[in-house]
Write a structure and sequence with these properties.
The structure is a single chain. By secondary structure, the protein is mainly alpha-helical. Helix content is 88%, strand content 0%. The longest helix has 81 residues. The protein is elongated. The chain starts with a helix and ends with a helix.
């Protein structure tokens, strides 16, 4: 799942960066992001996650816009929006969806609708800023707790190893003392 999320992040980053470039470099970045897209689709399919992955649908729509296949992009945008539930679990996704609607309408020259969708995205960002902050804070707290538990486990494992080494050392010393004692008694018997 981490690899799948990494593929999604790389696709998004590369597509956003590609928009700042021109010509050959732009096309290289788009092609590279498509490689991550195909890998992500493959991973999602293998793990049965493709049906729930709206992120991949959004990226597929962005590719359709990039390839100037506006009919396909428009149809897919409408399908994705129709399948989403309007609850808080999808609110952050709606922001991305509205951003892609903005790109779509700008690409086809409908600047009024592009502006409307950009306003929706901004409003949702503002409304969900506290939710996003809470999620990041929770994620950070959970990660810190996990790191602390991992560190405690590591210390416990190291302590167990040290105790085991001390026990072995004690056994060796005891064995040397017994052998030394036996040699002393044997030397005393031989000399006497």
């Amino acid at each position: 799942l981490d690899l799948l999320l990494a593929c999604q992040d790389m696709m998004s980053i590369m597509l956003k960066y590609a928009k700042t470039q021109r010509g050959h470099r732009h096309q290289q970045l788009v092609d590279s992001s498509k490689i991550f897209y195909k890998e992500g689709i493959s991973l999602a399919t293998k793990n049965g996650l493709l049906d729930n992955s709206h992120d991949f649908r959004i990226i597929e729509i962005q590719y359709a816009i990039e390839d100037k296949d506006y009919a396909k992009a428009g149809k897919m945008l409408n399908e994705v929006e129709a399948t989403l539930q309007r609850d808080s679990a999808y609110m952050l996704f709606f922001i991305d969806l509205y951003d892609v609607y903005t790109e779509y309408y700008m690409a086809i020259g409908d600047y009024k609708k592009a502006y409307d969708y950009q306003c929706k995205a901004i409003k949702m960002r503002n409304d969900n800023f506290n939710l996003d902050f809470a999620i990041k804070s929770n994620r950070s707290a959970v990660q810190t707790e996990f790191d602390n538990l991992r560190y405690k486990r590591k210390l416990k494992d190291e302590e167990a190893k040290l105790l085991q080494q001390m026990q072995i050392t004690k056994q060796r010393i005891f064995g040397l003392v017994v052998i030394g004692g036996l040699l002393f008694v044997l030397a005393f018997i031989i000399l006497a």
